[in-house]
Amino acid sequence: MSLTAAQFQALSGATDAQIADLERFRVLLTEANQVMNLVGPSTLPDYWSRHVLDSWQLIDHAPDALTWADLGAGAGVPGVVLAIFLKGRPGAHVHLIDSLGKRCRFLEQVKTELDLPATVINGRAEEQAITVDVVTARAVAPMDKLLGYAQPYMDRGAQGLFLKGEKAPDELKSARLSWHFKAQLHPSRLTDGRGHVVQVRGLRRAR
């Protein structure tokens, strides 16, 4: 499903100010993607569906969540999109965490220009002592490895909401060799039928 800005606005109920922020983010992402590998270039023409809708749908699964940690956040997806929609809500904050300095510089530029309720952290995801409502990630690592990155946040009470592709069921099966957890697979709002939002709670290492 390919969307225009107007179609996404009608679907999501986004305000004009949010659409303006998302459009500016599109320009910044397109410019930065010419000099570093943030997203697949072929996905940019479908920005409003592949990146914005894909990220925005997470709010459906945690509508009351105010604090988020986006692991491996270099492209700003989903973290920047979430911060745009959370802007103006008291107590809202998104931690954008990435281990590469050049990606963090891009995120800092976006955060500053759009005046987002966010903190950019240049470091390893699993080493951050942050308490949040939700920990999320997209296109970072297979589920068994991703859960290792997410464990410190989930130990402090976060739930996991991870954007995954068609291999999500197989990744969960492999992850259960190393982890105990409760998981729900939600179909993605993208209509190609392959994507999933993976909701994880009760994470602990298998003995």
UniProtKB/TrEMBL annotation:
GO cellular component: cytosol
Keyword Glycoprotein: no
Binding locations of S-adenosyl-L-methionine: 72, 125-126, 138
Single GO molecular function: rRNA (guanine-N7-)-methyltransferase activity
InterPro entries: rRNA_ssu_MeTfrase_G (IPR003682), SAM-dependent_MTases_sf (IPR029063)
Record carries keyword tRNA processing: no
Keywords, alphabetical: Cytoplasm, Methyltransferase, rRNA processing, S-adenosyl-L-methionine, Transferase
Catalytic activity: guanosine(527) in 16S rRNA + S-adenosyl-L-methionine = N(7)-methylguanosine(527) in 16S rRNA + S-adenosyl-L-homocysteine
Main location, first listed in the record: cytoplasm
Signal peptide from the UniProt entry: none
Native species: Brevundimonas abyssalis TAR-001
Name of this chain's protein: Ribosomal RNA small subunit methyltransferase G
EC number: 2.1.1.170
